[in-house]
Amino acid sequence: MKTRNLPALSFSILALILAIHLLPVDPAHLIFGTAEIHDGQVWRLLTGHFVHADWNHLVWNAIGLLVLGVLIERRSRRLLFLALLVGTVSVNFLLMHSGLDYYCGLSGVLNALLVIALWLEWKASRSRWVIAIAIACAAKVILETALGDSLISQISWPPYAWSHLAGMAGGVVALLVSKIRTPARE
């Protein structure tokens, strides 16, 4: 079995979101703001995903990034980058057409990584548990979208579960684009 290097992309993103959260200035100029983006502040399309409303928000997203990012990156850094890119584009597309004024956090994009990680685990194991976990995750996101609230965490901003669905759609698109061929585990 081939050993992989340290998951540098996952750790780099984690360091970035932590650094932004610890900035001694208000990161309001980094939050995803639809009007501001239309006014030319296009960096918010990226930075809005790295800003978090509070420590609880940051911790949940950091855990998700570490688990999913490392699972994917140990197999393919290119695939992790693709999932992050397509997930970001799909969530941004939704946000720009949603009527939502402001958004922050990585959870929408993390759902693209969730799709990829589950796919990779299923391809490697063909386990029914992976299918059960995928169904449970999809049900959670659908329920949160219907309720308009988070089932697991509470943050100081109102949640926007539609971004999770957009992220999942981005994960599916990333899978289709990548034409994944993952060898079974040894």
Question: How is this structure best described in words?
Answer:
This protein is mostly helical and 186 residues long. The chain has one domain (8-178): Rhomboid-like (Rhomboid-like fold, Up-down Bundle). Helices cover 63% and strands 2% of the residues. The protein is built from eight helices and two strands; from the N terminus they run αβααααβααα. The chain has a two-stranded antiparallel ribbon. Helix 4 (55-73) packs parallel to helix 6 (107-125). The relative contact order is 0.16.
Portion of residues within helices: 55-70%
Poorly predicted segments: 182-186
Mean pLDDT: 90
Q: Within the CATH hierarchy, at the fold level, what is the topology?
A: Rhomboid-like fold
**Which CATH architecture would you pick?**
Up-down Bundle
- CATH level-1 class: Mainly Alpha
What structural class should be given to the helix and strand makeup? mainly alpha
| Total number of helices | 8
* Adjacency order of strands in the biggest sheet: 1-2
Strand content: under 5%
What's the alpha carbon Rg, rounded to whole Å?
16 Å
Count of DSSP E strands? 2
Order of helices and strands: HEHHHHEHHH
How are the secondary structure elements laid out?
Elements: H1 8-21, E1 32-33, H2 34-38, H3 44-47, H4 55-73, H5 77-96, E2 102-103, H6 107-125, H7 128-147, H8 162-178
Helix pairs in contact: 1-4, 4-6, 5-6, 5-8, 6-7, 6-8
Main features:
186 residues, Rhomboid-like fold, disordered C terminus
